[in-house]
Design brief:
This protein is an all-alpha fold. It contains 20 helices and no strands. Helix 3 packs parallel to helix 9 and helix 4 runs antiparallel to helix 5. The protein starts with about 40 loop residues before the first helix and ends in a 13-residue tail after the last helix.
């Protein structure tokens, strides 16, 4: 890469060399292939599946839903799955047209304008930085205390989470291949473990007579009056708060698009990976929620526990079996955090490659010995530790973390959906996936869902997540102003086909000049 003030340009365009499938060549987007394409269809699916991770989401948010909405709050889950599936289909349609690392940052920069694209990239960074902390904090706050029989506190949760993030950062920094292998194995373990856990809960519960399906329609201690209300200007009805369970869990499927440059035939593989992850996890998650809730016994008492899901598992399946399955859950959650940190690293690297991120001179580098953007991984680790230190001091650390990690993707999804609607008549040709006749119904459902989801965050209980958004947005605004003052909007232009054509013209052999005797 050169060190001029404009983004790097590739030296060639046209079809990918070596007869690679459509969508694998990066030259047409203005980039050179700097990372190896190692991900097949299952590895791509594992990335999306690992990020979403129902084990993580349900273990994190289930207690909050019991407190705000009671057991009946779990019936918000199917609505969220349908809404997020529509969003995933929209993301898939865009990924099939622009299969480049950076996902929403790249799409918005190229289809709208680079300034809006930069804003989208920064919001995505804000999301990935906080969600990795929220996920890893779940291990320390909701599972390990039950697994090792100790009292969880903010202090020990802080230390444990910090160590978990460190281990993930080391793995991501040292080897993408090893990271993917760990994640693929962990996702396989999660699939087997969650299916086995769900089946065992139903089977043992039925055999012992503990299953009570009437609990599924109980409100617990939540008053009946106004339960389904829409709320007021700064408040949300009890049932609506239950949507946070699915909205926090069914996110991150777009991480498969963020690794498009490392995926074989990404225009075909990535969209299907995202959709399959949402559908598969949606069905399995609903069955698991029904099992846990039907075995809750006393929902009001369970809502007061810091580890409600782990408590149910240990009580129903016994100490040894329960703890064995909790170990599988820890592996699943670790894998989820690993994929998030990997995705955040790739986003930082993608923006730095275009000279759009603070410290891009260091962050754009690919380490020669590891073949990974090691500096970008170190930065994501440092930011995660800062956020952990900030949120861990809160008395409601877990709620604040998962709320912030739910608000930000909702903003990203809404902005990307709006972009698709505005540009759908002029999108580049698809390379392997398109919505076809389902486009309008998918867009309508996605818009209705995202508007409703964003309205939930008007509730006063989300003040701390909004403060995080405000502070990080202010930091981003300062750097964006610096970029615009120093380089102007032209300095933010993206590598594209027009620039590549110009480079080809400049690099083409000069034609002979007849006036000079045929010399060039």
């Amino acid at each position: 890469m050169t060190d001029s003030s404009t983004p790097p340009r590739s030296a060639a365009a046209g079809p990918a060399a070596g007869g690679r499938p459509a969508g694998e060549g990066l030259s047409e987007f203005g980039y050179e292939q700097e990372v190896e394409r190692e991900l097949g269809w299952y590895a791509s699916f594992a990335v999306a599946f690992g990020f979403v991770s129902i084990a993580t989401g349900i273990f994190t948010a289930y207690g909050s839903v019991l407190q705000s909405s009671g057991p009946m709050g779990i019936w918000t889950w199917p609505v969220v799955v349908v809404g997020q599936l529509c969003v995933a289909l929209i993301f898939g349609s865009l990924a099939a047209r622009i299969p480049v690392s950076g996902y929403a940052y790249q799409w918005t920069s190229r289809l709208a304008n680079p300034v809006l694209g930069w804003i989208m990239g920064w919001v995505s960074f804000m999301f990935l930085a906080v969600v990795v902390v929220a996920v890893d904090y779940t291990i320390a706050a909701t599972i390990l205390p039950v697994l090792f029989q100790y009292e969880g506190t903010n202090q020990n949760a802080w230390v444990i989470t910090g160590v978990v993030v460190l281990l993930q950062a080391i793995l991501v920094a040292l080897s993408t291949r090893a990271t993917q292998r760990v994640n693929t194995v962990a996702v396989t373990v999660q699939l087997i473990g969650m299916v086995a856990l769900t089946v065992l809960l139903f089977a043992v519960g039925a055999f012992t007579g503990q299953l009570d399906f009437g609990t599924l329609f109980s409100r617990g201690d939540v008053p009946a009056e106004g339960y389904f209300s829409l709320g007021g200007a700064a408040s949300v009805g009890p049932w609506a708060m239950g949507f946070l369970l699915g909205a926090f869990t069914i996110v991150g499927f777009e991480s498969a698009a963020n690794l498009a440059e490392e995926t074989k035939d990404p225009a075909r593989v990535v969209p299907r990976a995202m959709a399959r992850a949402v559908v598969g996890l949606g069905v399995l998650g609903m069955l698991f929620l029904i099992a846990v809730t039907a075995l809750a016994e006393d929902p009001a008492a369970l809502a007061r526990s810091d580890t409600p899901v782990a408590d149910v598992i240990a009580r129903v399946l016994g100490s040894y079996v329960g703890k064995g399955l909790l170990v599988l859950v820890v592996i699943s959650i670790f894998s989820c955090g690993l994929v998030i940190l990997l995705s955040g690293t790739r986003l930082v690297w993608a923006m730095s490659r275009d000279r759009r991120f603070p410290g891009w001179q260091l962050l754009r580098r690919i380490n020669g010995s590891t073949g990974t953007p090691m500096n970008a991984a170190v930065l994501v680790f440092v930011i995660a530790q800062i956020l952990l230190a900030t949120f861990a001091r809160s008395t409601q650390a877990l709620f604040s973390l998962f709320s912030a990690a739910t608000l930000l993707p909702a903003i990203i999804y809404a902005a990307t959906t709006a972009l698709y609607i505005a540009k759908r008549r002029s999108l580049p040709p698809s390379r392997g996936f398109q919505l076809g006749r389902w486009e309008v119904p998918v867009l309508v459902l996605a818009v209705v869902w995202l508007v409703y989801e964003l309205l939930i965050f008007r509730d006063a209980s989300f003040a701390e997540p909004w403060r995080y958004v405000a502070v990080m947005s202010a930091i981003g605004a300062v750097y964006l102003a610096y970029l615009l003052i120093r380089h102007g909007t032209k300095g933010l232009s993206m590598p594209d086909l027009h620039d590549i054509d110009r480079v080809l013209d400049d690099d083409a052999p000069a034609r002979p000049d007849p006036a000079s005797g045929g010399r060039p």
